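QA checklist item 7 of 12: single-chain prediction sanity check.
[x] sequence parsed
[x] length recorded as 340
[x] structure emitted
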Amino acid sequence: MEKIPLSGKTPDELREIVTALHMPAFSAGQLAEWLYKKRVGTFDAMSNISAKHRAVLAERYETGRVAPLHVVTSRDGTCKYLFQTAHGLVETVYIPDKDRHSLCVSCQVGCKMNCHFCMTGKQGWTGNLSAAEILNQVYAVADIHPLTNIVFMGMGEPFDNTDEVLRALTVLTAEWGTAYSPRRITVSSVGIMSGLKRFLTESSCHLAISLHNPFPEERLAVMPVEKAFPVENIIKELRNYDFAHQRRLSFEYIVFDGKNDTQRHAAALVRLLKGLPCRVNLIRFHAVEGIELRSPAIEKMELFRDYLTHHGIISTIRRSRGEDIAAACGQLSSINNGTK
């Protein structure tokens, strides 16, 4: 019989489980503390639960903790971890930077979005990760490194797996869970509308939208999702929410030499985002095998950034990390993961 992971369960769900197993109701709270506060990997480690009840739990359930299969470290200190999931392999990236220690987690094996510039999209989609598999990435790396921030910017589209991503976010931010501040978590999406609306009403975490081009026809050429979810509709929807206070809205903009880095593009971005409290993160394109795109010179990116900033759009150039181990933006893959 396949065992069910307990990680990702809410206190109410844990209470139902322990009741069905004829365990005391207070065992649910004990389980939640062991799973999310102390992050243990086995039932045997749950010392305040009787041996009899630990054995009963172990017959049908597992904690959901799995060690990484492999890790490779960049010369800049970035670490890329490989995890086995029910649907295949996923990569997770730890990025240390002074007082900020970020973890980039995956939510799918592969991706359906097929963005032209992304290695994950090129491999196709195999399956969705469960909340337990998402949380396991956080806990496994947190056992090794300190974490201050979590970004859902790894493999997969979060709002193509909305239920499990929101479940994981609930555990990560709840007081009974891991108790991370929502201000320490950012979810990145291409803008799938149904999931976007749920996220904006059911979570307080930060949002990042993958934009990459302000012109619909040009965005469509590199992002097929533009056909179903036009960027102009996404922006219109975002204007219904409050981003002027604690929740942050940002736009990810991978810069391609000669493709989306002209003053024409910068001016269109200003028009598109005018009046919306947000920032634009400019990202250097990282080479993907078989894709004939290039990153512009840094001077060109700086001119683009300065134009946006001068016209009232806060803009920064994100420093590339982990490119030498294929851990940078757009490079994650279940295939080329360095295990061979």
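[x] summary fact logged: The first strand starts at residue 4 and ends at 5.
[ ] second reviewer sign-off
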